[in-house]
Amino acid sequence: MTYNQLWADIQEELSRLLAEELPKEPPKPEPDRLVFFQRLAVLYVRYLQVFRQLETVYDQVVHPQKRRLIRALLDGVMGRVVELKNEMVENEDDSSIMLKLIIIPIPHYFISERSKELQERSTMLADMFKVEDVDESEKVTKEMSQEEAIKIIQMAERARQGRLRAKLNQESRNMNTIYRSPGQDVIESSAICIQKVWQGYVQRKSAKIFRAEEMITLGMAMDPSYEVPRPAETTAQTNTVCTRVKQEEYEDDYQKCIAAVTEQLRDMEGDNTKQSMKDQIRQWFMECRDATGMFPEYPGVEEGGSAVLFVQKDAQQVTYDLLIFAQENHFQSRSTG
After folding, report:
1. What is the DSSP string of 92-105?
2. How far apart are the first and last CA of the chain?
3. Which residue from 28, 36, 79, 151 lies 20 to 30 Å from 138 (Cα-Cα)?
4. What dihedral angle (degrees, nearest 10) is formed by the CA atoms of 60, 62, 68, 69?
5. Are 102 and 48 within 8 A, CB to CB?
6. Is the pTM of this model over 0.85?
7. Digit-coded pLDDT (tens) for 239-291
């Protein structure tokens, strides 16, 4: 199934969910608490399935426009999942414990699309916790005479020669012990020592193998034969990396195109649009004067500024709204004064 087909199925499922949650006639309140909870649980599971499918589609689609639409829908579905979970918790039903076993995957874009931000945060934390090397204070050296220095060197040399003689004597004793014919007790004790070491090694190795087989049987460890990536897995990983690269390239191209088109519109249509807006404002002033007999005041920032003039209203409606706003401000100033 292609991702476009999956996206179409998701839209159909969301349409059905929306029709069930917002029927034409509002449903009557459900008096049975268990039935109400079951209804919430079914909606929760269905929205969770839609969330997983949407996350898969968003993770693999490369078109920037589609990704923006799917991202908005994905955020809305996640919000609805949280709302249903909150309603089930407020219902305080024992069955909600079973829903905790449902695994909710973390969307990949939580990390992939915030890689730069996370990297900057890690760098900042590393800089904050970086321990600067403290320069060691210079040690105060005491002056020494030539005789004292000679004595120290002689002591160090005698100590070195003593260690060397002790080492030679120890090696000589070890050689005598090796070439001396061992007794029966020494042979038996040596054999017992070798057997103990060997048996311990064999038992530890067999126990390790048995433990690994038991973990594989219980499903708590993976069979080593499956740990080696198979060709299909390698191909899937390669395709995923290529998809990530394409997403970044298309996103960069999309942003550049938006900037280019915006600049082009500003150059080609900017002057005409500015003149057209001035004409509309001038016409509004004239219509207000014809309707009220006087020129109105220009809307301030609190009133919405010039955006109020471009609402689909006639001059009388706009003037009426401005008069109401002025009266409210007058009443507020009198009440505060």
Report:
1. T-TTHHHHTTS--P
2. 70
3. 151
4. -70
5. yes
6. no
7. 888 888 888 889 889 999 999 988 888 888 878 878 887 887 787 777 777 76
